[in-house]
Amino acid sequence: MNAPQHRTVVSADGMRIYAVAAGDARRPALVCAHGFASTSFAFSKQFADRALLEKVFLVAYDARGTGRSDKPEAAAAYDGARLAEDFKAVCEAFGVVRPVVLGWSIGATVIVAVAQHLPSGYLRGMIYTGGGVLTRSIHAAYISEWIVATLPALLDSDATAAWRANVAFVDGLFARPDEVPHEVKLRWLGDIALAPPCTRVYIEASSRGLDDAKWEEMVANMRFMVIQGRLDRLVDSSKMEAVLKERFGKRLEWVTIEDAGHTPCWEKPEEHNAAVIRYIESLDT
């Protein structure tokens, strides 16, 4: 199997976006968008899964403001058009056409930006994982009290308050944080620390400013999947399931992963990735 391809992609406004891809480019493309205060490292276990790489051409990138990508310190640099341009630039860099998007947590709102700013039909499918935020208005119906209480400190410019919140946030990603290797937690905390605090504020705010009208049109004619950990601390999983099933009916395939928290892609990769493969293969039927 070919080694991963690491690239620095230049977006339309000149920002440099780090991206990585692996697998056979002739396979269906799966582009992964990570969550808040994270990086493409979140998808490490997808890149390590030979069974998945035999089925898809896997792409992930560090969103602007995070990881190895540029981190502009202006709010306008994070609006929906810029996020869609980044997504397009990454796809074009690897020759990807009509990908399926795997959006984790708030990172899934890039799908709204793509629907709003790129041509109709740009995406082949959508998978939401780990408390996936379809739109901010839908997400409000099932967001947990814990993250509502934690978020202000995550966005705080006070170093001590933010540090405490960062540690609590990383623990909150997992159903069983005490079983997560210390080195893994350090990597997650390090990724948070790489970005200037203001970028977190801009990233969170930009997701609220997206116009979801085009997304509503797209999802009306598309089957999609939600993969959700039963023990997710950032959302009420039972309420999320009820809300989405009532709203989307048969267009939604719901997958619950037991004993997983907000990061089923990390905590239960085999089960998670098997669901991803099943969804992608179903698009051909």
From TrEMBL:
One MF annotation (Gene Ontology) recorded for this entry: hydrolase activity
Residues of the AB hydrolase-1 domain: 28-269
InterPro entries in alphabetical order: AB_hydrolase_1 (IPR000073), AB_hydrolase_fold (IPR029058), AB_hydrolase_sf (IPR050266)
Keywords: Hydrolase
Pfam families, alphabetized: Abhydrolase_1 (PF00561)
Keyword Flavoprotein: no
Gene3D superfamilies: alpha/beta hydrolase (3.40.50.1820)
GO annotations of cellular component type: membrane
Protein name in UniProt: Alpha/beta hydrolase
Originating organism: Phanerochaete sordida
